[in-house]
Amino acid sequence: MPEPAETKIGCKAIMRIKKDGEKWIVNKFVVGHNHILLTPRSTSFLRGHRGVSKVQKKLIMTLNESGVPTRKIMSVLSKDSGGDFSVGCIGKDVENYLGSQRRKIFEEGDAQMLYSYFLDRQNKEPGFVFSMQVDNDGCMGSYFWADARSRAVYQYFWDVVTFDATYLINIYKMPFVPFSRVNHHHQTIMFGCALLVNETAESYIWLLRTWQEAMLWRAPSTIITGDDKAMAKAIVEVLPNTTHRLCLWHILQKFPEHLAYVYNKFPDFQKDFRHCIHETITTDEFEQEWNLIVVKYDLGENTWLQNLYSRRDKWVPAYLRSTFYAGMSTTQRSESMNKFFKDYVRSSIMVSDFVHQYEKAIDARYFKEKEKDVRKKSTRAIMKTPFKIKEEASLVYTRKSFMIFQDELFNSLRYQARRLSLTGEKAKLNRLPEHYVLDRWTINAKSRPILHIPCCDAQVSVEVDEPTMRRSKSMIQLYDIVELASQSAEKHNHFTLALEKVHKEMLAMDEHVECSQAVPANDDQIVRSQVVLNFSQTVQDLPRVPTKGRPKSLRVKNPKETQITKKRRCSICKNEGYVKNNCPSI
Fold it and tell me: What InterPro entries would the database entry show (predicted)?
């Protein structure tokens, strides 16, 4: 709670000076103060003594764009300055500076800045695509984007895709819809993403058509989504030949919600139901057990269960045994990506900022993939059994794929060993048949060139501007010199004199024209592109809906997650809030 205080207390203490030729003269000096004087160390809290330096501003922006909260930014500044009293500013000053940067974005327009960035990015990277909806009033609607790298990767791993819309991101509370799947290392990767203004069938139809156009109209074999009618309608219209599977995990979470009375009345229902879903192999087995459960627990009149049963071919494993899913049976891959992005974004982030944070997150994912590639090439897999077929497989598959292959082979050999011991036959496991090797799990899964997407090298990151590169190299060299200078007073004095000399020489250099072109004169300006374009269309921001405080969660939760937890009740006095061990009546 703020503590109101008056800063004007009528103190007459003053020292006034003026310049007389080459001298400074004190022409007025009043010594007396009407308040307690502060120590020199405490003056760092006064507004007139505080300020955020140019170097600190750059560091603050770097940390903020990396997702570091303000309180931790202050910890970094304190550590870098030698203590809290040496920083020169307080946490409120950092918050005010970041707030001023956000206000500048609003002055230019959040949507307009995003539109400008997309056009600039497309100019630099021909393979980058985006689409933005604009209403009759010029307000920003839904938008989708994908870089060349993501579009190229889709051509290698297009078979199974999942997308989900359970994460509300940015100040406009727009659902974040990522398209994802697993690569040859079994890592979750992205095929583009979108922010939607609503979750209607029309929005999903627009999104799927836009996404398919970006992916060269190559439809996935299978798509996994949540149980959403709008999504289902859009998939039928845009992807009629794609197998649509519902997320099994989400469906199972709804059973306790809709059949709570059955769970409470019949303790064996959950065990029977799980056996029916997970243990049945054929559709006939499932149908037989399902009918027994419906009769046994009197569920024939339950309309929700009947509706779910009518779509059993989209979620029951027995109906989907012959469909390839690459280890993905639920949308939890998308939800894991939502959790991953949560480390990069905040609830108050603007859409233009979110795009940059998204790119950082994607770069981090591709860095992990590159790390797996290097580890595969520089190490050897550990063999559980000395078979030549496994050595051959270890050279073909990625490390994760080989581990899965090795476990399956080991389990199969245990069965074969029992059979061979009875028949006296010898196992022949010398070669790995090529027709059994699926290219998407091998180390060469991405070796095929993609001709229709320009600049689609999957390992190339977003281009870094030259001023940033020069600044980074200079800082690395300077840190080494500063470390040496801190070792003794002699080294520190030598470094200080040399630094002053270099500083004067650089100020005297006639490169102000080149510097003004490379770096804006206003250091407070947030630089995101090196090309300034004139846009014929102006895009307005969406109206913001003010909320009280930070939302408890950005993810859309189902009713089971938001239900009130039952309070503990004492079995002796029957009061709530404690159990009998803590009962005051004992």
Answer: FHY3/FAR1, MULE_transposase_dom
- The two counts, helices (H) then strands (E), for the chain are 20, 10
Strands 160-163 and 174-182: antiparallel
Q: Strand 129-134 to strand 23-30: parallel, antiparallel, or no bridges (unpaired)? A: unpaired
Q: Which two tokens stand for residue 225?
A: 């989504």
Tokens at 432, concatenated = 């790995």
Give yes or no for a contact between 405 and 384, defined as CB atoms under 8 angstroms apart: no
**Per-residue model confidence (pLDDT) at position 521:** 39
Is-contact 478 386, C-beta < 8 A? no
Within 13 Å, how many C-alpha atoms sit on residue 573's CB side? 12
107 Cβ contact partners less than 8 Å away, ≥ 6 residues apart: none
Q: Could you tell me the two tokens for 182? A: 């697993």
**How many beta carbons lie within 10 A of that of residue 279, not counting itself?**
12
For the chain, what is the largest distance between any 2 Cα atoms, rounded to a whole number of angstroms?
A: 114
Closest CA relative to residue 61, chosen from 50, 73, 51, 78: 73
> Tokens representing 233?
């309608």
End-to-end CA distance of the chain: 41
**β-bridge mates for residue 28, sequence order:** 16
58-67, pLDDT tens digit by residue?
889 888 877 7
Task: Name the DSSP class of 279.
Answer: I
Residue with tokens 């060349």: 148
Contact predicate 136/537, CB 8 Å: no
For residues 533 and 262, give the distance between their C-alpha atoms in angstroms, rounded to a whole number.
Answer: 64
Distances (CA, A) of 17 to 14, 20, 292, 385: 10, 10, 98, 89
Single-letter amino acid, residue 299: L
Beta carbons within 8 Å of 140's beta carbon, 6+ residues apart: 110, 111, 114, 115, 132, 133, 134, 351, 539, 540, 541, 542
> What band does 533 get if pLDDT is binned at 50, 70 and 90?
very low
Give the sign of the dihedral formed by CA 6, CA 12, CA 88, CA 503: positive
Q: What is the pLDDT of residues 235-293, one digit of tens each?
A: 999 999 999 999 888 888 888 888 988 888 898 898 999 999 999 999 999 999 999 99
- The rounded distance, in Å, linking the Cα atoms of 534 and 241 is 42
